[in-house]
Amino acid sequence: MKGVTEGGPLGDAPLGCTIEVTRLAEGFRPLEVARVTHDRLDGAGTLGPMTREVLRCGTVAVIIPYDPRSDRLVLIRQFRIGNALRTPHAGALELPAGLIDPGESVLDGARRELREETGLEAEALAPAFDMMPSPGLCDEYAHIVIALVDASRLAAAAGLADEHEDIRPLPVPVDEALDAIDAGRAVNGFLVAGLFWFARRGRERAAALAGQNGRNRP
């Protein structure tokens, strides 16, 4: 069977739409209701109007911290309300991540979040891929970044008290982390996507980044 083609590389595509939004609730993640009309995919007119609720979540940096000397990833564990409501495992296993501040670059935001959530300084950073974890529910846009770190310097505990963060950083062998994903013992979306990417390209990208970092040192 031949693959489906639309005349160019496969990917998300433009689609005409009109959107009128009304703010329903303020908060860390503002909630809006959108009145939407959009073009039909077959070109035969439009669909709508319809209403969709959406959380406005902003832009985040998600970090894949990797120590090539020990072949370990640095993961974190913290309480997540979604886990608590849906599963028996409220202590979610995750990658370090957080909102990028206004005026902050992706890599600067990644450095800051890595420091806040693990106590580590990135030796080198590079973009990995981008993703929207749940575009049917929210507008969160995530930049996933790989970071070279020295896991031996890992903090025992981390997080910002004024953000009610209680974070335990964990140095985890790569194979053990991948086993946790394959077995369904960890289900965080950023973690699953990030480790699947790492399994395909992570060590190769890390080696190239380490070489580049070495050449850039005085």
Describe the structure.
- The model has no long low-confidence stretch (mean pLDDT 93).
- The strands form two sheets. Strands 4, 5, 6, 7, 8, 9 and 10 form a seven-stranded mixed β-sheet that branches.
- This protein has helices spanning 81-86, 106-118, 174-182, 189-216; strands spanning 17-25, 31-39, 46-55, 59-67, 72-79, 91-94, 97-99, 124-131, 141-148, 168-173.
- The chain folds into two domains: 17-55, no CATH class; 59-216, Nucleoside Triphosphate Pyrophosphohydrolase (Alpha-Beta Complex), CATH 3.90.79.10.
- With 218 residues, it is of the alpha+beta class.
Q: Care to give the gist of this entry?
A:
With 218 residues, the protein is of the alpha+beta class. Helices cover 26% and strands 34% of the residues.
What secondary-structure arrangement, pairings included, does this model have?
Elements: E1 17-25, E2 31-39, E3 46-55, E4 59-67, E5 72-79, H1 81-86, E6 91-94, E7 97-99, H2 106-118, E8 124-131, E9 141-148, E10 168-173, H3 174-182, H4 189-216
Parallel strand pairs: 4-9
Antiparallel strand pairs: 1-2, 2-3, 4-5, 4-7, 5-6, 5-10, 8-9
What is the 3D shape? globular
Largest sheet: 7 strands, mixed
User: Could you tell me how far the N terminus lies from the C terminus, measured between alpha carbons in angstroms?
Assistant: 54 Å
Q: Return the average pLDDT rounded to an integer.
A: 93
SSE order, one letter for each helix or strand? EEEEEHEEHEEEHH
CATH domain class name of the largest domain: Alpha Beta
Instruction: List unreliable stretches of 5+ residues.
Output: none
Total count of domains: 2
| Name of the CATH superfamily of the largest domain | Nucleoside Triphosphate Pyrophosphohydrolase
Please report the number of helical segments: 4
Please state the second-level CATH architecture of the largest domain: Alpha-Beta Complex
What share of the residues does DSSP label as strand, in percent? 25-35%
Please tell me how large the radius of gyration is.
20 Å
- The residue fraction in helices comes out at 25-40%
Give the tally of β-strands.
10
| Structural class estimated from helices and strands | alpha+beta
Oligomer: single chain
CATH topology of the largest domain: Nucleoside Triphosphate Pyrophosphohydrolase
